[in-house]
Amino acid sequence: MNRLVLLTLALFVSNLSSAQGWGGGWGSSNDETPAAPARGGARGSREAASSPEADPAAAPQTAVPDLKIESIGTHYDDSAKAHYEPEYVNQDTNLGLNQGQFIPRPYLRQADVKFRKRVWRVIDLRQKLNKNWTWPRSPITQVFWELGTKGLVRAYANDSFRRIITPEEILKNTSNLEKSRIINSGVEPESADPVDDYHDTFFWVTFNWEKILRFEIVEDWVFDYKHGEMKPIIIGIAPVRPIEISVTGPDGQPITSTTFDKPFWLKMDDCRPTLAKSQVFNRFNDAMRLNWDQHINGHRMFDSYIVKATDWDDRYINQKPEFKDDNVAALLEADKIKNDLFIFEHDLWEY
Fold it and tell me: Which end of the chain has less Cβ packing within 10 Å, N or C?
């Protein structure tokens, strides 16, 4: 009787082992590995039942996605191409976009530079005299932004023009991580609970060039002893990116402030071949369109104000202690620097 009971129990355990996938692991010629849920037993079944895939109404876990920037590479040696839409007016008196050429500056011997003053200026596109900078057919903001972010010219990290920054680094530095609340899957919007039936999701937003409203340029005012003239030479230009910062005030209400950042700098001499092939709107005469190189470097048809000049502390005017909390005094100091340059040039001659 005892042998019968033991034999029955052995057969029951053998059948149970085969059903749960415990057999065949040792001494078996089959190389197939049993599936994970079979080895997990009841515990694996409970975990599968509690996972978000098994229950569509369950809120998924919040995860921050990785920022993926596709490889852009450098195209410094590529020939300059015309930017954007061609002219819609008569071309008889206008150079085509593909024919625009820039005139190199006359050779300036360093021994003939008897005076040099470096200043930084801000060009605000919201000013009336700078409205043509936002011409939809050839917006200069897109021209400069794509020159840097597409690797068409060398981009630099700061205005010393020593360290080159890659297009991938620019896009990475100007991308912001945004958060949004979305409804859980399987939940009807009409009956959704605003707290329990929604979850946070994160996504990366790339900066758009249309938000650029300022440019900063660095230029040298030099006195050419050989030709007897005082002339400005634009060294570099940088788009100014606005950054909105939101903080909670003392009363619990959000306070939004705007700061500004310069993602990269471009040397003006590197940009001139492309600027010469991009035309700018002339509000006085459609038969005489200028290109951007003539507009910026040749005729300097823009309005700007000085924000910095070479000084012992190497600070912007609004960062100096005496002008930090007084914007009007900072503007007056900028006008003083501009007037000093005019007086210096005027005093070079006798009348």
Answer: C
